[in-house]
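Data availability excerpt. The first of two example chains:
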Amino acid sequence: MTTAITGATGHLGRLVVARLKTLAPALPLVALVRTPAKAADLGIAAREADYTRPETLAAALAGVDTLLLISSSEVGQRAAQHRNVIDSAKAAGVQRIVYTSLLHADRSPLDLAQEHRETEAMLQAAGIPHTLLRNGWYTENYTGSIAGALAAGSFIGSARDGRIASAPRADYAEAAAVVLTTPGHDGKTYELAGDSTYTLAELAAEISRQTGKTLPYVDLPPADYAKALAGMGLPAGLAQAIAGWDVGASQGALFDDGRQLSRLIGRPTTPLAAAVAAALAQR
C-alpha cells in the first residue's frame, strides 16, 4: 500500500517523512517533488511531480494508494494547483487523500481560507475517500522572528490581545503520520491546534524570561506593521498579508480549544516555552 507525500522536501513534508519511517518502517513511501534530486537525503523513492504541470502527475501517482496532499506554498495559485493533483489522483486510482487545510477553514476570516475551502470542495466532488487536517498556526511563524526582535529591541505585530493556539510543525507532522498509518479517519475533519494559548505580549514575555533581556510587545496598526515588515526587506504583498493574518488573530482566527491535535498524537502538544527555547538554541 504505497503512500505518497507531496511537497516532501518542504519544512512540513520532511518531518512527515521522518515520522512515517519511524511509525511504519515497512510502509512503501514515495516523495512527490519538483526536483527529485533534492529529495535524495530523505532515503525514500522520489518522483517528479509539479503542481503546475499535470503531465508530471500521472506518472508520479501511478500505483499510489494513499496520498498526503500538503497544500501548496504558492498563495493565490493553490486552488488550480490542487485541482491538478486531485484530478490526476482520481485518474490514477488513488484510494485515499489526506489534505492539510487551515484551522476552521469553513469560517476563518483569514484570506488564506478561501483556497482551502475550494480544495475541500474539490475533494468532496471527486468522491475519493479523504481526511481533512485543518492545521492551525505553526509556532515557527512567530518564533522565526525572535532573532530580529531581539536585535530591534521589541516584538512587533498587529494581533492585539488575540489568543493563539499554535503548535510546532513537528506536532502537525506527527498527526499526519498517525492519520496515514491508522484506520478510521476517512470522512473526518480534524481541527488541529495547540493545547495552550498565548498572546503576542505573552510570547514576548517568554522570550524576555529565557534571554534575560526586556523585550516588549508593540502592537501596531496593520498598515504600520506592514510598512515595518517591508522596511525589513519583505515584499510589499507578503508584508500586507502577514499584517492581515495578525488582524485575523485578533479576531480569534488562530484560536481553538478542542485539543484534537493532542488526542491524535497521544501526548500534549509542545508548549510555547519549549518552542522558544528551541528557536533560541538555533540562533
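And the second chain:
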Amino acid sequence: MHHHNHYYGQAHILARYCGLNDRFPPPIPGYLQHGWNIFDGWNPQHEFYDGAWRFVWSDAPRRRGYMLGRREYRVVGAPWNYLLQMEPDLGVVADEKREGTLWFLFHGWEGGKITGQHARLIDEIKETEPGPVTMSLYYTEYERPEIRRVYEKAGFRVISFGKRGWLYEDTHRMFLYHQLQEFRRHARVASNRLSTAVFYGASVGCVPAVYGDPMELAGEDQAFGGTARIARLWPELIGKDLDLTAAREVVDAELGVSALHSPEELRMLFDWERHDER
C-alpha cells in the first residue's frame, strides 16, 4: 500500500468504518486521493504502478484522468464523509455558541516552504472577520517561529493539528477528528487558497471564504493551472461573502457526498473481506 494512503489517518478512518482495526488498517490495493485536487486527484509528479486502482473522491478527477488516457478509477467519496457518518456529534455545540473563524494558512510541505506577506494578510483578516480568529498552521509553519509568532502577536489563537505522516511514520491518525471538533465550534472557515480544509469546514456548517495573499510555495508545479485556474473553475468558493447555497453545492460535489459506499461495499473494493473485524 502506498504510504500516501495513511496521510491524515484516512486509511484508519475507512478501516474503522468497515469494522476493522483502525490502529493498523489493512493495505489498500492502490492509491487513495488524500486531499482536494484540481486535476485527477494527485500531484503531477506522482508515480503509479501499472494496473493500480485510483480511488478518488468524486467523478470530476476521474473524468480529468480519463482525458489523459488513465484508467482504473473508482469513485468512493472523501474519507471525511465517512468520518462524519461515524461522528455526527463530535464537537457539536449549540448553533448560538459557534463563533469566530478557523483560518487556514496555505502551507508548505516537507519539500518546500512558503513565502508571502504575513503582516498584510493579518491586516486583511482583522478587517474581514467578525469575531475571534483561530489560525491553523500546518506543522511545517508552526515549527517556524518567524511565522508562528507573527500570528500570535496579532492576537490570534494559533494551533496546529500535527503531522500527516510520511513513509508510515508520525501519522497523526486523529488529525481529522481534531479538525472536526474545531470546525464545529467555529462559525466560519477561511483560507488564502481554496483547499481541502475549506471544503471540510463548509461541509459541517461553517461559512466559507477564500481571500488574501495566496503566498508562494518553493518549487510549486503550475502544470494544472495554479490559482488562476482555481479562480476560473470554482468561483463559487472565492471571495469574502459567498452565495452559501451555490458554495455548498460545489462542496458536496467535490467531496463526493453522493458516492458513499456501505461498509460491505468498501471491504469488497479494497479486498478487505479476508480481514478479521475488530
